[in-house]
Amino acid sequence: MSPKVAEKVAFHVLRAMAAFIVLVLIIVLWDLFSKGFPALTWEFITENPRKGMTEGGIFPAIVGTFYLVLATILFALPIGVMTAVYLVEYARESWATRIIRLAVVNLAGVPSVVFGLFGLGFFVLFLDFGVSILSGSLTLALMILPVIITTSEEALRAVPNGYREASLALGATKLQTILFIVLPNAMPGILTGSILGVARAAGETAPILLTAAAFFLPRLPDSVFDQVMALPYHLYVIATQVPNADPKIPYGTAAVLMILVLGLNLAAVLLRSYFRRMRRV
Amino acid sequence: MSPNGENTAITNEIIMCKESLSKSASKKRRIWDITEKMTEGLLFLSAFIGVVTIILIFLFLFKEAIPLMADPAANTLTSKNWYPISNPPVFGLLPLIAGSIIVTFGAIVISVPLGVGAAIYLAMVASPVVRETLKPAIEVLAGIPSVVVGFFGLAVLAPLIKDIFNLPTGLTALTGAITLALMALPTITSISEDAISSVPRRYMEASLSLGATRWQAIKTVIVPAALSGITAAIMLGIGRAIGETMTVLMVTGNAGIIPDTFLVPVRTMTATIAAEMGEVARGSDHYYALFVVGAVLFLMTFVINLVADIVSRRMKEVE
C-alpha cells in the first residue's frame, strides 16, 4: 500500500470512529427524548406520585432537586471563588499553594459514591445533620468545588494584568482592585463554572443517595433538616424498584432531568463562547 | 475686614478642608488596609477547605474502616465471596475488586481506540467547522447524568445483549463495560484532543517538508509527541470508570462472584456501597466492611489520579 493510499484509509477509519461516537450519542438522545417527551404533560410535572409511584407526577422530585442545587451553589460558589482569588491574586508559589492545588486535583478525582460515604460519616452522623437537604447539599458542594475553583481560576487569569496595574496606579488598594476591577471582568467565566457545577450537582445520584434523598415523600420539605425526593434518585428508584410502573414515568423523569442538565450545560457553553468572542473584539 | 484678612481666612478654610479630607481619606485607607489583611487570611482559609476535605475524607473512611480490622470477620476480607448477611458474614473484597476491574477494563478496551481515534480526527483531519460542531456534541455526552445512562442501559442495551448472546439476563459485565465506555469516552476524547492540538505546528511542517504524508507524520511524530497527554487522558478515563456508581449499579446485575467472562453479572465496589449502605445498621460489621470497600476504592482512584497528574505535568514541562 502506498503511503498516499494508507493515508486515505487511515483518515476514513478515523472519520468513521468520530462518526460512530456521534451516532451513539444520537441514538441515546433519540431513544430518551422520543419516549420521554410524550410523557411530559402538565399533570406529570405538577402532581405528586400516586399508587406506590406507578402513576402520577414527579413534582416533589423537581422541587427537591431545585432545593438541593440552590443550597449546593450557596455553599460552593463563595468558597470556590475565594479559593480561586487566593490562588491567582495572592498566593506565591509555595508549599501551601502546591498542597492546595494537589488537593483540588485529587478532590476532582474522588468517586461520587466516596463523597456520599464521607457525607454520611461526617455530615449525617458525626455532625448529626441527619439525612437532610443540609447534609446532601454540603456533600454536593464539596464535590463540585473543584469545577468552580478551576473555571474561576481560569477566568481570573484571563483578566489582563494591565487592568490590575492601572487600578493600582490610580491608588486603589489590592482588595479594591479585586472587588471592582478583576472580579467583574472575570464574572462571565465564574458564571460558566458555576452553571457547570450546578448541572453536575443536579444530575448526581450517589452523593445524595446516602445523605439526602427520600425514597418516597409526597410532601414538600419545610426545613433544611428535611429529607427530599430528587430527580436522579427518583429515576433510579422507579427504574429498578418499581417494576410495574408505567414506562412513561421513568422516561418522563429522564427527559426532565436531561432537559435540566443538558440545558444548563448548553447555557454554560454558549455563555463561554459568547464572552470569548466579546473579548476578542 | 481688609481684603488681605479675607484672603487669609479663605486660605485657612482651604487648609482645614484639606486636612479633614486627608484625615478621612487616611481613615478610609486604614480601614481598607485592615480589611486587606483580614481578606487575605480569609481567602487562605477558604483555599484550605479543599485540603481539609481531602484529609477529612481520608480520616473518616479509615476511622470507619478500622473497627472491622479488630473483628474476627476481618479474616474473611481476602475470601472469594461477599456474603454480608449470611451467618457468619463473609466480607471478601476480591469479587468486588474483580467486578470493578473487569467492567473498567472492558470500558477502556472499547473507549480508548474510539476516543483517541476521534481525538486524532478532530485535531488533525477534521475541518474547523466539523471540529467546532463535534467537540461540543461530545461534551454533551459528558453531561448526561450517570443515572440516565444507567436507565438507557437497563431499558435498551440489556434486552439487546440478552437476545444477542442468548443469556438468562442482560445485566452483565459487558453491559456495564459498554455503558461505562459511553461515560469515559468524552473525557478521553477531549483531553486527548487537547494534547494532540498542543503539539507545535512545526512538528507537522517539518515532517511534511521531509516528504512524509500527513498520516505518516501523525503516526510517527504527532501522536508520540502527545503520548503523555493521551496517557493522562486514559488514566482519567479509568478513574472515571472505576468510580462510576449509578450506571454499574443499574446494569451489571450485582452478583458477588468473581467473573470468568464478560457475559455474567458482576458486582462492583461502587455499586456495593450504594446498594447496601442504606440498609445496614450503623456500627455493624457490615457497616464497617462497606467503609473498607470505600477506603480501597478511594486509594485506587487516588493512585490513578496521581499518576495522571504526574504524567500530564511531565507533558507541560516538555512543552
From TrEMBL, chain A:
> Which Pfam family, giving just one, matches this sequence?
BPD_transp_1
Q: Which GO terms describe its molecular function?
A: phosphate transmembrane transporter activity
Q: Which SUPFAM superfamilies match?
A: MetI-like (SSF161098)
The residue ranges crossing the membrane are 12-33, 58-87, 99-127, 133-156, 177-199, 249-271
**Membrane-protein topology:** Multi-pass membrane protein
* UniProt entry tagged with the keyword Transport: yes
Query: In which compartments does the protein localize?
Result: Cell membrane
Biological process GO terms, please? phosphate ion transmembrane transport
Q: Which InterPro entries match?
A: MetI-like (IPR000515), MetI-like_sf (IPR035906), Phosphate_PstA (IPR005672)
Report the residue ranges that make up the ABC transmembrane type-1 domain in this protein: 62-270
Q: Which domain of life is it from?
A: Bacteria
Principal localisation: membrane
Q: Which Gene3D superfamilies match?
A: MetI-like
Keywords per UniProt: Cell membrane, Membrane, Transmembrane, Transmembrane helix, Transport
Q: Which Gene Ontology cellular component annotation is one that this UniProt entry carries?
A: plasma membrane
Q: What family name appears in the similarity comment?
A: Belongs to the binding-protein-dependent transport system permease family. CysTW subfamily.
Q: What protein am I looking at?
A: Phosphate transport system permease protein PstA
* Natural source organism: Heliomicrobium undosum
